[in-house]
Design a protein that fits this description.
232 residues, 3 strands, 9% strand
């Protein structure tokens, strides 16, 4: 068996396989593809960049903790600005309220003063001018006052016996102020008997002062006066 494998194998003639001359270089292109691949220089492989070292958990925690701090600082600044703006608005609103309150107080004071002055200063009554004719309620009020005057004068109207039975008549004009005090008295229609006329004026003077004159009749009674008849 050894002989069959090693010695009985047909011999290969290598002289006919390759022909090479001295000084001739084999063209690599003419070489078989397998030989070219073997003969081709190996390309240098570019080294892959080294991976960045991964951060540790502690470094990651520091970064996470650092970021919120910066955000918190910015948030605090914005809150401070908002608070400052709100404070300014509150101050402005407070000033406006104070101004409005002062304005209201001044208006109320003026109104109160007007009310006090109106209440302290009584309204002037309507005054009947001298020479005006009385009518309606004015005439009734004047007649009522004249009846009081007549009543007072009758209390002091006396005559001596020798004048009582004589048909004598006289008329006197009396002017008096608002307090009822006589300003003037005079006979405007004589009886023809001076003694009788004097008794008329005497009764008027003794009855004074008369009741206070109504305000609206004061000017008329002080200027025009009142005519009193003896007898009526």
């Amino acid at each position: 068996m050894v002989k069959f494998v090693f010695f009985n194998k047909p011999m290969i003639d290598l002289s006919q396989a390759i022909s090479v001359s001295v000084g001739e270089v084999a063209d690599s292109k003419k070489l078989p593809s397998k030989i070219q691949d073997a003969a081709a220089p190996e390309e240098e492989s570019t080294p892959e960049p080294a991976e960045k070292p991964q951060k540790t958990i502690a470094e990651k925690v520091k970064e996470v903790a650092k970021a919120p701090k910066e955000d918190a600082v910015n948030l605090n600044k914005s809150k401070a600005k908002q608070k400052e703006a709100l404070d300014k608005l509150k101050k402005l609103s407070a000033l406006d309220k104070i101004k409005q309150d002062l304005k209201k107080d001044s208006i109320n004071k003026i109104k109160n003063q007007e009310r006090k002055s109106a209440s302290s200063t009584p309204a002037k009554p309507r005054i009947i001018a001298a020479g005006s004719a009385l009518s309606g309620l004015d005439k009734l009020q004047a007649n009522s006052y004249l009846q009081e005057i007549d009543k007072n004068i009758k209390e002091f109207w006396t005559l001596p016996q020798w004048l009582m039975n004589k048909p004598l008549k006289a008329r006197a004009l009396v002017k008096f102020n608002v307090q009822g005090q006589i300003i003037s008295s005079m006979i405007i229609s004589s009886s023809g008997n001076s003694s009788y006329d004097q008794y008329c004026l005497q009764a008027i003077n003794k009855a004074a002062p008369f009741p206070s004159v109504p305000d609206k009749l004061s000017e008329k009674f002080s200027v025009d006066g009142v005519v009193i008849g003896f007898p009526e």
